[in-house]
Amino acid sequence: MRAVGIILAGGNSRRMDALTDKRAVAAMPIAGSYRAIDFALSNMSNSHVQRVAVLTQYNARSLNEHLNSSKWWDFGRKQGGLFVFTPTITADNGSWYRGTADAIYQNLDFLRKCHEPYVIITSGDAVYKMDYNKVLEYHIAKKADITVVCKDLEPGEDVSRFGTVKMNEAARIEQFEEKPMVSNVNTISTGIYVIRRRQLIDMIEHAAEEERFDFVTDILIRYKNIKKIYGYKINGYWSNISTVDAYYQTNMDFLKPEVRNYFFKELPEIYSKVGDLPPAKYNPGSVVKNSLIASGSIINGTVENSILFKKTFVGNNCVIKNSIILNDVYLGDNTYIENCIVESRDTIRANTRHVGENGVRVIVEKNERYAV
Amino acid sequence: MIKKEMIAMLLAGGQGSRLGVLTSKVAKPAVAFGGKYRIIDFPLSNCINSGVDTVGVLTQYQPLRLNTHIGIGIPWDLDRNVGGVTVLPPYEKSTSSEWYTGTANAIYQNLEYMETFNPDYVLILSGDHIYKMDYEVMLDFHKANNADVTIAAMPVPMEEASRFGIVVTDEESRISEFEEKPEKPSSNLASMGIYIFSWPVLKKALIELSDQPNCDFGKHIIPYCFQNDQRLFAYEYNGYWKDVGTLGSYWEANMELIDIVPEFNLYEEFWKIYTNSANLPPMYVSEDAVIDKSIISNGSEIYGEVHSSVLGAGVTVGKGSVIRDSIIMQNVTIGEGCVVDKGIIAEGTKVGSNVVIGIGSDVPNKEKPQIYAGGLATIGENSVIPSDVQIGKNVAISGVTVAADYKDGLLASGETLIKAGGLI
Q: How much is the ipTM here?
């Protein structure tokens, strides 16, 4: 492969409410069996990118636990491998990553030591499948300096959490606005970039000299008139999960057959850490409708239009509707849950009622599971 | 010098012919069990959970599935720098070349493998039992008794005792008598086919008996050790242990898993059972599905009804189909409007629509009444069943079948239908 990969997984998101209190966005569980970063990692692996760096900063415990072995994604080869870089104190630096460009700057040695001519940069918080080789071919054919993967949102969709781009007929990016309040453009940047490695090193070094730390505002937007920055549009499924609503919706999308088939059945597949859990168990009294159930779960109650992550225990006479129950949750008997996201490893007391009245509610109870 | 205190030798070469069409293309240890597992996962997981990290797996009959399943042992953490899992098939030698002719003969042919680890003890296991056992505790027992051979044994009902190797022990658990499948058993303590040998004792016995045809542990090695006044002890085990050698016991052991709190519990954090599980997505249960008292593995899609059944990974049950008291192994596709009653459907089989399996009366199988009994309909792996046919009880089906194979659209109870074809 002619490229190395960088996955930016350092961020948290205030718009994810309590969900990112205990983990980075990239470690958010997705679709019952996965974590957000699995999609970027599997895409890298399936595109034969063999050398991948994951840059982490915000509460990386959960993420590091997930990345405990590179073998899940078929990395860990003699040529290349998976590298996890957290900020460290060095002789000439004592700061956290002050932005995406700074994160790359602080790990510039990784890029200097590679021999691959190109770099693929992506974020760890999006759900998508992509063959990066196609973007790279496009990048080379266009003789671009930077290629930005873009997607058209539906007219009227909120673009205020994305960067919006406007291209000319040749697909060169002419306008780039970062997180505009309102915009008449509905093409957004997906945060996936292809760039020549030498070019990236130069730009990052230059930005660092000027104490500029953000890849989008300090590199993409500043350079757009002097460098050839092209957009590469995608039509397939791509979803960023970094708000509670987007996270909820992305998970619920997996109840649609076309999305499920696209990710679960069509090749190449998405890899994740193997949990060694037994099959899901349905006891007498269980009623399950239109739901995804992950392994290790035991169900005694009713589950409708919901996603149960690994090792969920649903007690007798429980009713769960339109909800997401994250890993290893225990739901006591007779609980009623509707329009909620229940945080992982939580215990919900028996005979309680939790309803998201105006939109989705995040439940974090932190109850003890076993009474002493 | 490489040194391992105890290594395990796992006998996985047998066909298990009493499982009928289930083992026509795979060795018994590779047969699926409990949804996502295979039978060999249980002894392999027991090994790693007991701290035994060197396991030789002896294969002979149809080893492909077993080899791909074991690989380099990653799922069981048996990919080690020193030791780990090694698959040991029979091999050609400069003087004589032979298949493994008996359990002890197979071990004898791999003396060299065992020597490389300089073990103090060798654990002999077979790959056809479902149980959780801490071999380290058994080893402690062996050492405490200064034993030469320790045989794991469990009490069985007296009327079944004549099916097993029976040991009679004194108060100190020392074996005073050993009977292989006795007509009139004098005890009900049955050997489980799990042995710990002190290495010099095993080595000597294997070499001494190397000319014995079909050399077997139960028939030759144990009696030989016994006659030579060696210290044989019985390690009594009282947990769950199930021989899944017949279709009936295989079906029963699977069905025991779906009890509300099963005796053999796979959901305990302690003593996990590991397997090579590639299929990751969660299962999807549709709007019209009804599931009750069942276990269903990853990646399955259920549009119909599933009652009291065990389903493997990647199974599709079509709309309107009803599965009851059945074992459906991985990647089986069942069309719409089918009824499956007490069926065992092996991996990769495709069942058309409106197929009824398990109807009619309980007529014994005409060809092999001993094997296909208990009212079960057994379908071998990668078979194809056409739409709109009916299949009776105590039947065996294997291969690609077409509508013309079913006279008046029916395969009556007790019939056998073996056709060529299907993926290997």
A: 0.89
